[in-house]
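#onboarding

Welcome to the new folks! Below is a worked example of what a typical request in this channel looks like: someone posts a single protein sequence, and someone else replies with the predicted structure as tokens. Don't worry about understanding the tokens yet, we'll cover that in week two.

Example request:
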Amino acid sequence: MGTVFSLDVRGGRPDEVRAAVEDAVAGLHRVDEVFSTYRDDSQISRLARGELDVGECDPEVAEVLELAAEAERVSQGWFSARYRGRLDPTGIVKGWATERAARRLAAAGAAGVNVNGGGDVQLLGTPGSGRPWRVGVSDPLRPGGLAAVVTATGADELAVATSGTAERGDHIVDPRTGRSAVTDLVAVTVVAPRLTWADCWATAAFAMGSRQGLAWLESLPGVEGLLITAGDEVRCTGGLAGWLG
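Example response:
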């Protein structure tokens, strides 16, 4: 998937957790093989060229495409599984794969799981008694600095995802035009229970721009957002403060 993953696992039976880690890592490699648009022989590339239909692909392909269709519906078209007219669900795959890996580890008995996929994080359980997971949100305008710290106090599951231009430049496309999104934003961070959706919502809100993106995030239940404009203006949803600390 062109990025680095890290896994922080606490508690559980060592042998069972070790086997789950190996399974989760193998699963991430398999996701890359199936969904990579940079591999000509991946199932998603062959599907895009019409060499396969969905029924001939691994079941995960249909699952991801159904999730992407739901994300497109909820975002009113601001999220899309197509990139410049070609099938490309990578905007949802990384968050989905990261969340899936985290849930595999939790199912193996781990008391606390933190899986980070390229800066987008799925948290489950806790790292220790009375200690919550904490996630630093990078400041896109001040390299090395933090814009906020998200604390998962009281949450059995929490995800933090950021979309923006600081790391990868102008890579987010406006689905309506097929060109780079014209937006006043440099970063959107979304806090939600599931990374599959947090990742999608951050991308969609970024493409919308600060005013529409903020209003839309406010309308989603259980979702909070931090939006930073190119002019260094910070805008937050009403409930975000409850996750900061």
